[in-house]
Amino acid sequence: MLIVGTALGASASDSSPAYNFLNISSSSRIYGLGGVNISLVDDDIMTTDQNPALLGQEMSGQVALNYMHYIGSSNFAGVRYGHSVGEHGTWGVNLQYFGYGSMKETDETGSVIGDFSAQDVAIGGTYSHDITDRLRGGINIKMLYSAYADYSAFALATDLGINYYDPERDLSLSAVVANLGGQVKRFNNSYDRLPIDVRLGWSQSFGNFPLRFSITAWNLTKWKLPYYETGDGTNKEEFVRKDSFGSNLFRHLVFGIDLISSPNWYLGLGYNYKTRTDMSTYSRSFISGFSLTGGIRVKAFGVGIAFAQPHSGATTFMVNLNCSLNDILN
Does residue 286 register a pLDDT over 70? Predict the structure, then answer.
């Protein structure tokens, strides 16, 4: 478990390493906007993995696929579908697979005795309801299965979200309580916590200016998020603990900006200070913490991609394929 948790990033220091895959978005658009965004109002069903209240009737009949090449030999993939219920409700289902490749298995002396694989699977169901013409609430229930070598675990989790959207000002405000729940079956005698989190989000464009700005605050259950700066990453320099007010503040914030001049394409840029500083113990690159996304839509089909480089040895790439079955059948 520790190996897999490390592969998922240094965020494991903030919560249980067993379930940090829950913090990895399946949306290329969200991933390219910093990896966390709960307030982006769009008709792309993949964005709803961040906030169940973003699921709406405008997404009825959508099916979307995602694939991501993550750090090392990790590869993630999934599918998501949504359908309207009555005049005010929408339900959705999703499946996500997280595979971490093959790893060396050793005995207590450190001798290699073989290989083993590790994977996580999340199966979820979502329901959202329009409370008013501007306010929507949603719930997502997830079943989580993990298998690492000869060990396995099962957990249940839920996300609760709410979104306020003013179309006249293109103003979106959201709040989410993510990953409530716990393990039903443990790996062994120890209990692994889910990364329970409280998040707040704001997204807005201004007038005819074709840029939308987003700020997402996350990890709000814990103010202090210190990290250690190691200079050039060699053993020659001592670790320096960073725990100032400004450092803690910005490690809670994710910034995104996307160009929305056309409904048929978009471009986006994100910055996640926590991702950049988490990589301070590795060989961090100049663009660590930054991410890019872009996408096009042609009639009933859409394609989105995202790119990020947490550190110089880890280039991550994600692609989404989206299809509106209603547009094809009508």
Answer: no
Domains of the chain (ranges; CATH) run 2-329 (2.40.160.60)
Those residues with Cβ within 8 angstroms of residue 90's Cβ, 6 or more apart along the chain or in another chain:
55, 56, 57, 59, 60, 82, 83, 84, 127, 128, 129
Residue 119, beta-bridge partner list: 99, 147
- 87, exposed or middle or buried, with CB in 10 Å at 0-12, 13-18, 19+? exposed
**Beta bridge partner(s), residue 153:** 146
Tokens, residue 29: 């658009």
**Rounded distance between C-alpha atoms, residue 139 and residue 46, angstroms:** 15
State the residue for tokens 């697979």. 97
How much is the CA Rg of the chain, to the nearest whole Å?
20
Q: Identify the band that residue 194 occupies on the pLDDT scale cut at 50, 70 and 90.
A: very high
Distance between CA 60 and CA 64 in Å, rounded? 12
Rounded distance between C-alpha atoms, residue 122 and residue 49, angstroms: 12
The Cα 192–Cα 229 span in angstroms is 28
Asked if the model's pLDDT at residue 204 lies above 90, the reply is yes
Query: pLDDT tens digits, residue range 242-261?
Result: 889 999 999 999 999 999 98
Q: Mean pLDDT across the stretch 76-104?
A: 93
How do beta strands 211-217 and 227-229 pair? Answer: unpaired
**Cα pseudo-dihedral 150, 71, 183, 175, rounded to 10:** -170
| Alpha-carbon gap, residue 296 to 266, rounded angstroms | 7
Tell me which residue of 180, 171, 183, 206 sits closest to 52, measured CA to CA.
180
SS3 249: helix
Strands (E), 11-109: 62-69, 75-85, 89-106
Q: What is the pLDDT of residue 175?
A: 98
